[in-house]
Structures are given as C-alpha cells and as structure tokens.
Amino acid sequence: MYKRVLVATDGSALSEQAVNAAIDLALLCNAELVSVTVAHIEPVGYFEGSLMLSQRDIEAAQEQSDHAARRLVDKSVAAATARGVRNPRAVVMKSNQVAEAIIAAAKNQQCDLIVMASHGRRSLARLLMGSETLHVLTHSHIPVLVLR
C-alpha cells in the first residue's frame, strides 16, 4: 500500500494525534515514517518585519527556533522507533511558507502519503488565520490524510 508516510507536526495536541495515527498506519503498511516540522525563518531586517534587534539576538532566536523544531521531530521519531516503525526519519524544513515546505519535504523524501491534522476552523477564523492543511490538501500531488 504505502511505502513512505510523511507526518507533519507542529507540537499541538491535534498534531500529536496525527503522529500517533501515522505511526499506526506505518506499522499497518510496514512503511517508513518521515516526521517533518517547519521552523520559521526569523526576519533579519526592519523591512522583513524584524524588531530593532542586534544580529546576535536574531541569530539566537533562529537557533532557539531550530532547536525547538528538532526536538519536536526527534520526539516523533523516538515514539515511532519505540513502537517498531522501520527507518523513521526526522526532517526540519526552514521556511515561512509552511504548506509549501511540507509539500517539498514529501517530494524530497519520496513519500507517497502525507498525514496531518486540521484544527477545523470555520468561516471567519479560517479566512483570517488561513489553513496550512487546506493548502497542502489542494496543492499536493500525493494523497493527504487529514485528521480532526
């Protein structure tokens, strides 16, 4: 069925449920698991939206963001390994375009399924906040399993 499953996580309770479902699916299909999260790129200049911070403070903030992202995917890989998933991998993408980064990671890792959670926002909240899941769902060329 599926050979390599990508699961997108942001550390929220819903995405943790998606990680558990992706682990279950990987075990069921004897598939590999790729856990991905997207670390935002900190703005470095005023015109990019940065506050008046020193270059050192900006670099420290980026390092902290990268470290938090790495811990997040490493936690997913540890859970997958403990449950017996073969060859779990952790990927941190650096981008401010979350959905595009998830799609790119799935392509780069040659995944044949993307698993992710949806917060289920409706109407004005979805319009104002956007939906990364909806963007992945409508732009991905591989199947997407959305969990709520």
From TrEMBL:
Pfam families: Usp. It comes from the Bacteria. This is Nucleotide-binding universal stress UspA family protein. CDD domains: USP-like (cd00293). Residues 1-148 form the UspA domain. Belongs to the universal stress protein A family.
